[in-house]
């Protein structure tokens, strides 16, 4: 996953990272101490997806015939985010095992992503590049999927699909030898695949790009040069090709699988974009899960921010299993994928309206 405030503790941003982590812990306590709000209880119901209220008629349009799949024994509405399908994508990634950049396992994961996009009828291509890492040159590949909209200008939704290279040593001194990244890598990638299916079934105003980034994780130790290889390459390549100017906004998903979901506002993200996403979350009943507490996150959105593209990072910073061997499937839930998927879909029409 991306860097979170706590990960910053390893680098120059250590002080700020540590403060962020402390604040986060305090907030977790506060969150656990309070009972779920009625709204959040309601969000447990499988019918959550149908509570999305698109703000434009166009976003209601669905060309999908019968993309109905069972969710917990119930039928998800056609054109809605189906966390049961996303869960299968999460399981498929974890079944591959650890998936670090440059590995055969990540190639297999990439093949899975491309195959699923093809099944959904979404055009996609690998963007292959050579990354210079502290351990030498590594071949990496982003996957860029495109769903044409009425306009050629693009909105991107992104996730990294690599997992942290092992073995690595934690600040405690413990060495992690196996890391499958159930939340840190698999969860947001699964959600992104499901969003591709849903958005393909709709008529979108902007062209939607689904960006699956390679090499988000540091190969050795997190820094601006040893991290976010895929997102930095994408931005550089788009800038050189003259296509970056048509990218109007980026929504980044990272570590969204935590069963105890809590998402804080990242101070580095674009404020108006954060406002729209948080307002959408509140509107569909997740005000308690999208906290207004600020934190600072270094992640795949930062190359876009630095290049002038509005971007927001949706990430759960408070995950005890972060970068431990315990980031396994029992720590994540389909419900969390559903919540984030629903929020992104609820926010999209408002983002489009803002950029119109
Ligand atoms: Zn990570």
Structure description:
The strands form 4 sheets. Strands 3-4-8-5-9-12 form a 6-stranded mixed sheet, with helices on both faces. It has a two-stranded antiparallel sheet with strand order 1-2. It is 36% helix and 20% strand. The chain has 356 residues and is α/β, with parallel strands linked by helices. The protein contains 9 helices and 12 strands. It has one domain: Zn peptidases (Aminopeptidase). A hairpin with a 5-residue loop joins strand 6 and strand 7. The site of zinc ion has 5 residues, from loops.
Q: What characteristics describe this protein?
A:
356 residues, two-stranded antiparallel ribbon, 12 strands, globular, binds zinc ion
**Helices and strands: which structural class?**
alpha/beta
Radius of gyration: 19 Å
**Are any ligands bound, and if so which?**
zinc ion
Strand content of the residues, in percent? 15-25%
Number of domains: 1
CATH class: Alpha Beta
Query: How would you write the strand order of the largest sheet?
Result: 3-4-8-5-9-12
**Overall pLDDT:** 84
Q: State the shape.
A: globular
The SSE string, one letter per element, is HHEEHHEEEEEHEHEEHEHEH
**Main sheet specs:** 6 strands, mixed
Number of helices: 9
CATH superfamily: Zn peptidases
Number of strands: 12
CATH arch. level architecture? 3-Layer(aba) Sandwich
Give unreliable regions as ranges: 6-73
Distance N terminus to C terminus?
Answer: 32 Å
CATH third-tier fold name: Aminopeptidase
The helix content is 25-40%
């Amino acid at each position: 996953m991306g860097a979170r405030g706590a990960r910053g503790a390893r680098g120059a941003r250590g002080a700020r990272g540590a403060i962020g982590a402390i604040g986060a812990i305090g907030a977790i306590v506060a969150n656990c101490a309070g009972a779920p709000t009625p709204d959040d209880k309601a969000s447990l119901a499988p019918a959550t997806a149908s509570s999305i209220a698109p703000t434009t008629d166009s976003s209601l349009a669905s060309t999908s015939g019968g993309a109905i799949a069972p969710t917990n024994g119930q039928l998800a509405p056609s054109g809605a985010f189906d966390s049961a399908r996303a869960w299968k994508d999460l399981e498929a990634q974890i079944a591959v095992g650890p998936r670090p950049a440059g590995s055969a396992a990540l190639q297999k994961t990439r093949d899975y992503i491309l195959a699923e996009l093809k099944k959904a009828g979404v055009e996609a291509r690998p963007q292959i590049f050579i990354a210079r890492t502290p351990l030498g040159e590594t071949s990496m590949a982003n996957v860029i999927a495109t769903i044409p909209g009425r306009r050629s200008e693009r909105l991107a939704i992104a996730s990294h699909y690599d997992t942290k290279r092992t073995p690595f040593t934690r600040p405690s001194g413990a060495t992690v030898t196996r890391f499958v990244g159930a939340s840190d890598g698999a969860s947001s990638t699964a959600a992104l695949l499901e969003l591709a299916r849903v958005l393909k079934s709709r008529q979108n105003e902007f062209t939607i790009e689904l960006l699956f980034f390679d090499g988000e994780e540091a190969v050795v130790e997190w820094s601006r040069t040893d991290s976010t290889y895929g997102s930095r390459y994408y931005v550089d390549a788009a800038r050189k090709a003259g296509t970056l100017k048509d990218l109007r906004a980026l929504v980044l998903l990272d570590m969204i699988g935590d069963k105890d979901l809590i998402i804080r506002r990242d101070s580095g993200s674009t404020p108006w974009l954060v406002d729209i996403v948080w307002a959408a979350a509140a509107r569909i009943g997740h005000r308690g899960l999208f906290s207004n507490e600020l934190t600072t996150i270094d992640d795949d959105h930062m190359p876009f921010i630095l290049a002038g593209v509005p971007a927001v990072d949706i990430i759960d910073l408070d995950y005890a299993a972060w970068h431990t061997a315990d980031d396994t499937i029992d720590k994540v839930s389909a419900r969390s994928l559903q919540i984030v998927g629903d929020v992104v879909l609820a926010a999209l029409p408002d983002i489009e309206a803002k950029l119109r």
